[in-house]
Amino acid sequence: MNRCEIAPPLGGLRGEVTIPGDKSVSHRAVIFSSLAEGTSSIGNFLCGEDNFRTVAAFRRMGVSIQEKGDNHLVIEGRGLEGLLEPDDVVDCGNSGTTMRLLTGLLAAQPFFSVLTGDQYLRKRPMKRVVKPLSGMGALIWGRAQGEYPPLAIHGGRLQPIAYDSPIASAQVKSALLLAGLFCDGVTTVREPFLSRDHTERMLPCFGAELRTVDKGVAVTGRPRLKACDLTVPGDISSAAFFMVAALIVPRSELLIRNVGVNPTRDGIIEALRRMGGDLQLVDERLAGGEPVADVLVRGSRLKGIDIGGALIPRMIDEIPVFSVAAACAEGTTIIRDAQELRVKETDRIAAMTAELTRLGALIEARPDGMVINGRERLTGGKVLSHGDHRIAMSLAVAGLGAASPVEVEDIDCTATSFPGFWVLLGRLAGFQGK
Ligand code: S3P
After folding, report:
1. pLDDT digit string (tens) for 116-138?
2. Which atom of ligand 1 sits closest to the CA of residue 344?
3. How far is CA 127 from CA 124, 148, 172, in A?
4. Alpha-carbon distance values, 53 to 80, 96, 97, 323 (Å)
5. Rounded to the nearest whole angstrom, what is the distance from the C-alpha of residue 353 to the centroid of ligand 1?
6. Burial 63-102, CB ≥16 within 10 A → b, else e
7. Residue identifier of the C-alpha nearest atom 9 of ligand 1
8. Pocket residues for ligand 1 (CB within 6 Å)?
9. Per-residue pLDDT at 1
10. Do 285 and 366 reside in the same domain of the chain?
11. Final residue in a domain of this structure, among 231, 247, 272
């Protein structure tokens, strides 16, 4: 079955859900453990397709990674200088994080490697990492002067750089910090707004020396990385689908357990609260260097708001589902400064505008965002995921706010970041999930 029909629920969404581990944190845990000396243990790893692309890449470079069941990985790191040349092309699938972070890492290895990806990833821009890495002395080739994958990387010795990134991107920042680990001296990355800081939080746990500088971060090259045991927090990007679902379905009261609420990622909670959403953080705690909480969400009457600026990188992956909340709110919502959405797994501004329009939403695409005029209820109909996991899940949530059934087509892509999504949503909302 590659489609799912969502019928409007009869009552509120009530009870508790636990969402899977964070995708960004899971990628980094595999990468840093592979570069460390000794055996690392990673709990609550996200067993999604994207993360297994990173696992497969490091296995190809000689790293032993065992799956112990229950989302637990055991990784025998090979040390900073221990990776082996992959003997075939490394396929990053749909995963931009795998490709961009590995480009930084591989540019500094004493061997040759080639990275490719699926039809979506091969259309995504890579110059944002290729250009600064070239400034460090990296030799990287790709289609359209290094813009599009496949990328061929002739690894070698790099010089440190002080780079002012024109975009707030954790993938760019992390690619350069990874390359910087292999340089003599200090590599500095600055960005216009702070992007997610999981790399900065996790690398010191493995023994790397990082410090914050004005609007940026600096890493000292050639550390000895030591194995570390980590537990990955639940993914706020996955939790966001349930937050919006519980807000737009009247009489809901849902506790979402173990959500990562890192301040560089919690923009969706701030935005939904500003719309009048009732979201409370319960039992705030730290897990593996990351802030975590349970989030209690109650059905709320939402009103339109304006968002832009520094809030956008803090909720970039949640804007598709935020646009669903806006479509069900009273009044107008304006999303600005979100042009990065155009180069995600798909053009998410175009995709959400097209699909929500099919459900009767009053929505206009802009080059850097959307203008959404909310209405009481969306209408039913057939919608497409565009092969993008977050579009598929956002449209499923839209189905809960519609007056009649919504059929979402091409939904297998949700395995990228959220295996089990359809069963979990179906259990709560009373439809048959996959
Ligand atoms: C990610 C960074 C973000 C985000 C992506 C994951 C990461 O992308 O959208 O899903 O793990 O570093 P950018 O770095 O392009 O902002």
Report:
1. 999 999 999 999 999 999 999 99
2. 9
3. 9, 8, 10
4. 21, 10, 10, 29
5. 22
6. bebeeeeebebebbbbebeebeebeeebbbbbbbbbbbbb
7. 317
8. 24, 27, 97, 169-171, 174, 195-196, 316-317
9. 54
10. yes
11. 231
